[in-house]
Amino acid sequence: MDLFSSMQQPKDESFKPLAERMRPLSLDEYTGQEHLVGKGKSLRVLIETDRVPSMILQGPPSSGKTTLATIISQMTKSNFIKLNAVSLAIAELRKTFEEARDQLQLYGNKTIVMIDEIHALKSNIQEALLPVVENGTIILIGCTTESIHHDIIPPLVSRCRVYRLNSFSTDNIRDMLKRAMTDKNRGLGGSGISLSEEALDYLADISNGDVRNALNALEAAAYSLQGTDTLELRHVQEAYSFRLNGITTSDRYNLTSALCKSMRGGQTDAAMYWLARLLYSGVDPEYIARRIVVHSTEDVGMGNPVALQMALAAKDAVLFVGMPEARMALAQAVIFICESPKSNSAYKAINGALELVARSPAYEVPEDIRDGSKSYRNPIDNPGASNHYLPPELGKTRFYRPHNSGTEGKIYARYKEQGRL
Q1: 170-239: what fold?
Q2: 93 close to 128: Cβ distance less than 8 angstroms
Q3: What residues does each domain of the chain span?
Q4: Based on the number of CB atoms within 10 Å of its own CB, is 210 exposed (0-12), middle (13-18) or buried (19 or more)?
Q5: Cis peptide before 24 (omega within 30 of 0)
Q6: Spatial CB neighbours of 20, under 8 Å, sequence gap ≥ 6
Q7: How many other CB atoms sit within 10 Å of the CB of residue 112?
Q8: I want to staple 271 with a disulfide (CB 3.0 to 4.6 A). Which of 40, 86, 262, 313 is the partner?
Q9: Could you give the CA distance from residue 282 to residue 267 in angstroms, rounded to a whole number?
Q10: Could you tell me if residue 266 is left (phi over 0), alpha (psi between -120 and 50 degrees) or otherwise beta?
Q11: How many CA atoms lie within 13 A of 64 on its CB side?
């Protein structure tokens, strides 16, 4: 660094955003994740005794993953290297491994490597981490907002402790905002500005667990304040134009699961809520339509075969009309599935048949139903014709067992009369 660049460096940290300035500097300041680092918790003890294991910190945005890793970096005697998966190349990673190996062999110093957004690493780069994590060359701290099961390879997960961080509660956000308003060194405590209770409650609620955005909105409102020293509700409302409902991979799978299970359970109001959450969070409506089509056959099936037609029509409406109007077609299909009689007989039938095919030989097609068969008798023209349809090795194997539900109830009654149940 030359003299001029040194002169250009700020003398303090006032240039940093409020959210960055208020980042906790110690475990005592670190709140909202007491289940992990509260007094006496195992992770806290491991950090305080400098016995940090390789770990993956998984949680929603602004839940304190990077902050916790930074606190660890300040408390450990190990070398600490921070990398970001978005721009990380395999060559840089291998150089890090070599430096860590030299530090360990020559000086006995451990190296902690923090990789932010670790889910962004390609699988082959994740695989490169396996041997150095397993043999202790590095201690890995991976941070991710995404699903552990879908975005990180299982061998890497098995070599790490997984710690899940929760979204901050409304009370957590409120406490952090109060601290920002009173802290004279890092916060707004020396500005002479106060925050009304109504505005505080609004900020804590609308941030949806994202303390960074709450602090950013507070800062924007404070800096734009004119003619008064009190931040009122209208000031913070101007700083927030919409409720934050950011969605991660884990969120998407959980919300989708909630929608599907609500449809299966016939809980129409719950299904409407989860559908709205998915749509408001910006999930691709085609993805939602595909799940609706699946459940029209998996959960309703023969109970009301029209459900499949309704689901496919909703899918076509999404493609033809687009959003936001297509939300009505999706809602109609979801309501139809919820209110339809349920039957998973088709789901069980095909799964049972696939399972048998997978564990049995490829039996020959019976002569009666082979292409060009001379012994086949058309049962429509010859009622009571006794063709052999299943391989003789399977005897009278049954895959389809109708439910006494909705339209399928007629099939159930006929099977019962024929003694086929």
Answers
A1: Helicase, Ruva Protein; domain 3 (1.10.8)
A2: yes
A3: 33-164, 170-239, 249-339, 345-401
A4: buried
A5: no
A6: 13
A7: 21
A8: 262
A9: 23
A10: left
A11: 29
Please, are residues 50 and 76 in contact by the beta-carbon 8 Å criterion?
A: yes
Burial of 118 (0-12, 13-18, 19+ CB in 10 A): buried
249-339 belongs to CATH 3.30.70.1290: no
Class of domain 33-164: alpha beta
| DSSP string for residues in 271-311 | HHHHHHHHHHTT--HHHHHHHHHHHIIIIIGGG-THHHHHH
Question: Are the CB atoms for 90 and 125 separated by under 8 Å?
Answer: yes
> Regarding the domain delimited by 345-401, which CATH topology (the fold level of the hierarchy) does it fall under?
post-AAA+ oligomerization domain-like (1.10.3710)
Predicted pLDDT at 226: 83
Same fold across 33-164 and 249-339: no
Q: Read off φ and ψ for residue 13, nearest 5 degrees.
A: -105, 20
Are 341 and 405 contacting, i.e. CB atoms less than 8 angstroms apart? yes
Structural tokens at position 211: 């303390």
* 186, two tokens: 């890092």
Structure tokens given for 261:
């299970």
Concatenating the DSSP letter of every residue in 307-363 gives: HHHHHHHHHHHHHHT-TTTHHHHHHHHHHHHHHSPP--HHHHHHHHHHHHHHHS--P
Per-residue pLDDT of the chain (421 residues; tens, 9 = 90+): 343 444 444 455 667 899 899 999 999 999 889 999 999 999 999 999 999 999 999 988 888 999 999 999 999 999 999 998 988 888 888 999 999 999 999 988 999 999 999 999 988 889 999 999 999 999 999 999 888 888 899 999 999 999 999 888 889 999 999 999 999 999 999 888 999 999 998 888 877 788 888 898 899 889 888 888 899 988 888 877 555 455 566 677 888 999 999 999 999 999 999 999 999 888 889 989 999 999 999 999 999 999 999 999 999 999 998 888 999 999 999 999 999 999 999 999 999 999 988 888 888 888 888 888 888 888 888 887 788 878 888 888 888 888 898 888 888 888 888 888 7
pLDDT at residue 318, as a whole number: 92
Tally Cβ neighbours within 10 Å of residue 20.
13
At residue 158, the 3 state secondary structure works out as helix
